[in-house]
Structure formats: C-alpha cells, structure tokens
Amino acid sequence: ESRLEKMSRDMEAVYQSKVTEKLQKLEESKQNVFKTQETYRLSIQQEEERLQSKRDEFERSKREWEESLTKTGFADHIGSLTKTAKKGLF
Predict the structure, then answer these.
(1) Higher pLDDT pick, 66 / 76
(2) Distance between CA atoms of 54 and 23, rounded to whole angstroms?
(3) Measured between alpha carbons, how far is 31 from 38 in angstroms, rounded to an integer?
(4) What per-residue confidence (pLDDT) applies to 16?
C-alpha cells in the first residue's frame, strides 16, 4: 500500500501544480484584460476631449461668423434666403 500512497501523493502534487499554473495563467489573463480595458478607456477619454475641443472651436467660430454677419447687415439678407417657400394652400 505504500507504493499506492506514494503514487496518490505524486498525482495530488501534479494536480496541485497544474491547478496553481492554471490559476496563475488566469490571473495574468485577467491583468491583461484590465490593462487593455484601461488603454481603451484612456483612448476614448482622449477622443472625447478632442471632439469637445473641436466642438468648442466650431461654436466659437460660428458665433464670430454670426456676429460679423450681424455687424455687416447681411444677417437679414441671409435669413430671407434660407427660408423656403411654402407649398400648398397653407
């Protein structure tokens, strides 16, 4: 029975080492997923900031353009050009 017990202990040791190895690989995989997730999050955050900056710049340019039209008197003329003619009776 000593030989059987030794084989059992050896098999248990192999099993434990494989479990430990699998758990280590799982933890490494988990860390890689977290790292990738953080990279994507930062990338999205930078893209949002870039888009917000462009949006702000566009709004500022639009305001300046509208103010320049108002100062030159073209705003009324442009407003009448952009209105579409109504079709039908009403």
Answers:
(1) 66
(2) 46
(3) 10
(4) 98
* Cβ proximity of 66 and 75 under 8 Å: yes
In sequence order, which ranges of the chain are alpha helices (DSSP H)? 2-72, 74-82
Spatial distance between the Cα atoms of 5 and 59, rounded to a whole number of angstroms: 80
Please give the single-letter amino acid code of residue 27: E
Residue recorded with tokens 């710049």: 57
Contact 70, 78 (CB under 8 A): no
pLDDT of residue 85: 59
Look-up of token digits 């009776």: 89
d(CA 90, CA 67): 34
CA distance 12 to 26: 21
Between the alpha carbon of residue 63 and those of residues 56, 67, 88, the distances in Å are 11, 6, 35
